[in-house]
Write the structure tokens for this entry.
Amino acid sequence: TEPMPQPLHYLKETASQTAGPYVHIGLIPAMAGFDIFEKNFSNVLVTPNTRGERITLEGKVLDGTGTPLRDVLLEIWQANAAGRYNHPADRSAGALEQEFRGWGRAGSDFDSGLVTFETIKPGAITDKAGRKCAPHVNVWIVARGINIGLNTRLYFSDEEAANAGDPVLNLIEQPARRKTLIATRSERAGKVVYSFTINLQGPEETVFFDV
């Protein structure tokens, strides 16, 4: 006779857990004073040969009280100056550049909470639907107290026309909230700096995306 079918057993959901207070030690140990990685991940995305306009991204992540987080970690992913990602899945017309990986990781300063990246201003990309997208940087945020990493974007204040036509920005129903994704351009000592603030909560809460 055929054996009786066994009942299905479903595994219980694993308990969620925040990044904890040791995110720097685990992901950017050099910042915490530990030399344990053969190659440390960096907030510097450029080499001397990288093409494009050199920029500094500089900002803070604020909690619901407006206090800067001092143990937050950000990762960014962006296209090169020609509007192409350094990834085999990107088949856009822009030229691929081996001198620009397009990915970086940085932690906040332990005293000020400031996060910085040295990179280039990305070019406009074309999405899978063939739509032109404004230049932007993709940002992933993780810190103690955040159960799931948060995804957002940084757009550029001097790209008003491109921003107005961006398909993702136009998904945000409240136009006033789109400004939470805009980094402001300034110049300091001859360097171009784009400043941003990411608010985790409150009336100025940054727009986050379900990726």
